[in-house]
Write a structure and sequence with these properties.
By secondary structure, the first copy, chain A, is of the alpha+beta class. Chain A has helices at 8-21, 69-85, 106-123, 174-191, 203-210, 216-225, 239-250, 265-274, 278-284, 300-303, and strands spanning 31-33, 40-43, 47-57, 90-100, 126-134, 139-150, 165-169, 231-235, 253-257, 290-295, 309-316, 322-325, 331-333.
Chain lengths: 344, 344
């Protein structure tokens, strides 16, 4: 019998997920939303439950050569909380699946969990369960998170409307540039273990890479301001990739103004030093874990003075046109695809 | 600076979990129960939510030399559903985190998901989300499950009372003996790839290993009979280990009658052939995914005629005495610890 073999890289992560998810349309009456958003949505009666899972693998998502275990633990919780934030929800409980080889000591595991403990405190979530296993190689962390949201406040990716304003929290590109600095210093260190790493002046972007924050502060800020976003997604793969998700799922286009994209000064400085484009880092770098969301124009006054929110463009009724208006006055199509671990 | 190094194997899986969980006492008002039972329990208002995570790793939990991917997928869902059953709950939604190396093709992943699809149908759960990542080696599956239970029906490990009857579903030891047969045939095959595996006569125990079922049927049966167990746990590590959990968490002892432990005839036959004790397989083998539970004596008449339930003993007020009354008339302390992957 001849069996055909299709490489996963030929479909990519998103292509494979799309292909698999076709067979998993939810059937239970309380399954409000299945695959295709930042979390699943479950009807709890008076409100909605939110459920999501993220994996972090050594050698794929983090490098223990420069990423302390405590930071890995913190990040594992934060990126899951970010998924709940992206649904406009409040996180509650997390479970942690941990697989590790005998290279790791009890003390190492305790460092990892100290980071999780800190993140649980910062984001006010309880670690309520999990699983622990030996692995043949390396460290793998699987975190699942459960949260809740009032039914009228849940925010999907698929509900942006033409003329809605496009907003992003914080600043972008820092996590990617921080990673480049860490990779550079690792190379230097491997060539000459006596050298001290040159991290000075890059503390902010390194922090962005090693210890990302979920923007629950902005979720609470929007609540206080009485704003329910019309659509939302978290920025894990870069602005371009996330904007394409919002547009394709909502059936709208978008125009983004380059000059409005928030980028920290350190990103510009290190970009010059490493000959890397700050705007490319923001568009395609990934791992910033900011929130990308749309609001009604009528809500503009409620966000315009927030130091945490930048209005970077607006949605249009032309789904085929997702464009960047550059500082130079050009309009470029936004097409980037973000990370694809299977192609690396 | 001198740092001490403690090997994980010196604490064991349960010891490490105990040590880590000390720092994670739940603090949120809706976190009803954290680490320490088959699932966490979350207050949803009118009912409870149940949340749990299990990992399955190639080379640790399954061997693709004899375990088809479809069965691995089925098992990944079933063992999680079993955790919900063990809380007397009804499973609803699952998320799947999947890490795999480029050794796996799209077709292989589809086989895996076909098994998950079958399990979702059998147990009436929706696969609603997940994550997909490359791994440096092997296949890892992380499944999280969410379920619900009426507040008055939730069943913990810690609530067994002296004089409660101890019950177990189905039969025990089959999954362990099935694994021994598969391991034997793998050795034969590796020595002589032309040989056909000798599996005839062992179909039942091989099925028990490769395609375990969560006993949701018994959960529905108990509901119909009007029985709420006083305590419950699923049998993933062997009867001995699970009974010790029930007793220590409930502060009770137990007396188990060897002659009442349900063991399939195939377990006896292959036990003779391989010189392995059937009762040891039942007590310490693991992976049967049956339910071990206690009921009030007053409920005996409601379960005594069930072909799915065996009453194997009773709980006592002597926490220090957890004993097996052997067929030969002796009383042996039950002390086995189940699997510890970190010692293998």
């Amino acid at each position: 019998m001849t069996q055909s073999r299709t490489e996963i890289a030929s479909l990519g992560e998103f292509g494979l997920i799309r292909r698999l998810s076709e067979n998993f349309t939810p059937t239970l009456p309380d399954s409000v939303l299945g695959i295709g958003d930042d979390t699943a949505v479950i009807d709890l009666g008076t409100e909605y439950g939110l459920l999501s899972t993220d994996l972090l693998l050594e050698g794929v998502h983090f490098d223990l050569a420069f990423c302390p275990l405590k930071h890995v633990g913190y990040k594992a919780i934060a990126v899951n909380v970010s998924d709940i934030a992206a649904m406009n929800g409040i996180p509650g409980q997390v479970t942690v699946g941990l697989a590790l080889s005998n290279r790791f000591s009890v003390e190492a595991v305790e460092e990892l969990y100290a980071g999780m403990r800190a993140a649980c405190d910062d984001f006010k979530v309880d670690l309520v369960g999990g699983d622990l296993s030996a692995s043949r190689s390396g460290l793998l962390i699987s975190v699942s998170v459960f949260g809740k949201v009032a039914k009228e406040k849940v925010t999907y990716r698929k509900t942006a409307k033409p003329n809605d304003l496009l907003c992003v929290t914080g600043d972008l590109g820092g996590a990617y540039m921080g990673l480049q600095v860490l990779e550079r210093e690792k190379q230097v260190y491997m060539a000459n273990p006596g050298m001290q790493p040159e991290l000075e002046g890059n503390e902010y972007i390194i922090q962005r890479q090693l210890k990302p924050e979920a923007r629950m502060d902005v979720i609470y800020e929007l609540r206080d301001a009485g704003v329910v976003p019309t659509a939302m997604i978290d920025v894990s793969d870069g602005l371009a990739s996330e904007l394409l998700h919002l547009c394709s799922q909502s059936g709208v286009g978008a125009l983004v103004f380059e000059e409005n994209i928030p980028i920290d000064e350190q990103v510009y400085l290190i970009g010059t030093e490493l000959n890397l484009s700050p705007i490319t880092a923001a568009m395609n770098g990934g791992e910033d874990y900011e929130l990308l969301f749309t609001i009604k124009q009528a809500d503009y006054d409620r966000v315009k003075n927030s130091p945490n929110i930048s209005v970077i463009g607006y949605m249009t009724d032309k789904p085929a046109e997702i464009q960047l208006a550059t500082k130079g006055g050009n309009r470029l199509p936004i097409t980037a695809q973000g990370w694809n671990h299977f192609n690396q």
